[in-house]
Specification:
Length: about 400
């Protein structure tokens, strides 16, 4: 049963060129992590957050299968009932060590982590301030907090400071930001955010989903990238991107974690992650630390590709990471470019409103460690041909 307005909404989305549908994507039969099968064809994958290619790493698969043999698959209950097992606790300890914090807590997904944490983190009389380009889960979590909520234009620290100056001196305040912005690929100015927070009695919450495993000398994320100590920063992140697994976490003080165990509804009222998932994530941290060449290869590929795009005249905004947008602007033209790329053997979907602001539709490409130089050269050649034919540069 549906409501009449559902069909009206669908028709309007179709008329606006914003209707979305699911596309079947299957693994490459030859085990190439940088490729997938679409419509019976092997195509280069430029739309995955599996930056290091760990999703099918042999050690991670083996860890998951061993855990299934020992524990079965489902955990059977929430963590606070009977779903808390040794691998959950071991993973949290490992995350805390990796992020150099006192403690950590795992959640089912990044979206659920941000909703659960931000909705209870500060009292309702507090203030939450977020970068306008924060991930949707952060914005939703801020709104659910019940606090006074304000946004500042992307990276505009002067506007942020004006908002902080106006607040009462003793008002609990949270500054919320992505570490790496998922649609633009740039890195938050974390040192300056922390400086502003300390000056105005605020706390910084950083979503390191696209930074963990990718940036920093050891892949620890945004704080390590800038050489910062964890201090009072609350670090959230996911296990399903560079780590190739599933789930999410928050890392911080022991007091913070104890508070969230008792107050974060998306932790309290959900089934614990399967032991196979937590065991796989533990193995992923081992691989991350013992195979640094994967991250080195990722950055070699990223820099080669970014330089190639710039030489072709494409606008890649202020990307500093393996997330590299190709700015198109028009929604329908972005769809045409994406379709032309697929015809050329490259899977790179168009990103349109409401995911990005109107007039900023783009091809969001992500480079991975498993991509070969031949793959990247083919992408660049294809993009050059498409741009010339459509006159979009």
């Amino acid at each position: 049963m549906d409501f009449p307005f559902h069909q009206d909404v669908i028709k309007q989305l179709q008329a606006d060129g914003l209707f979305r549908s699911l596309r079947r994507v299957e693994p490459d039969p030859h085990g190439h992590s940088g490729r997938v099968m679409i419509g019976g064809r092997s195509v280069i994958l430029l739309a995955s957050n599996n930056y290091l290619g760990l999703a099918d790493h042999p050690r991670i698969k083996e860890a998951a299968m061993t855990a299934i043999q020992e524990y079965g698959f489902g955990s059977g209950a929430s963590r606070l009932i009977s779903g808390n097992g040794p691998s959950h606790e071991a993973l949290e300890k490992r995350i805390a060590q990796f992020k150099q914090t006192e403690a950590a807590l795992i959640f089912s997904t990044g979206y659920m982590a941000n909703l659960g944490i931000l909705s209870c983190l500060i009292p309702s009389e507090g203030l939450v301030v977020a970068d306008r380009l924060c991930h949707a889960s952060l914005i939703d979590g801020c709104r659910m907090s019940g606090c006074r909520f304000r946004v500042y234009e992307h990276g505009d620290l002067d506007q942020l400071e004006r908002l902080l100056v106006k607040k009462p001196a003793n008002q609990p305040t949270l500054i919320v930001t992505d570490g790496v912005f998922s649609m633009d690929g740039d890195i938050a100015p974390l040192p300056k955010l922390i400086e502003l927070a300390e000056r105005h009695g605020a706390v910084v919450f950083v979503d390191d989903a696209h930074a963990t495993g990718v940036i920093g000398k050891n892949g620890r994320g945004t704080l390590e990238h800038f050489g910062l100590k964890p201090g009072s920063v609350i670090q959230m992140g996911t296990l399903g991107k560079a780590l190739g697994c599933f789930g999410a976490y928050v890392a911080g003080s022991r007091v913070l974690i104890d508070f969230l165990i008792n107050k974060a509804k998306t932790f309290i009222y959900t089934t614990a992650l399967p032991p196979a998932v937590t065991a796989a994530a533990l193995a992923a941290f081992d691989v991350l630390e013992k195979e640094p060449q994967l991250r080195e290869r990722l950055w070699q590929n990223r820099n080669y590709y970014a330089d190639g795009l710039k030489s072709l005249g494409f606008d890649i905004l202020n990307s500093e990471t393996p997330i590299i947008p190709i700015m198109i602007g028009d929604d329908r033209l972005a769809m045409i470019v994406s379709q032309r790329l697929l015809e050329a053997g490259v899977f790179a979907p168009a990103i349109r409103p409401p995911t990005v602001p109107k007039g900023t539709s783009r091809i969001r490409t992500t480079i991975m460690a498993p991509h070969t130089r031949e793959d990247i050269d083919h992408v660049l050649e294809s993009l050059g041909q498409i741009a010339r034919s459509l006159r979009i540069r």
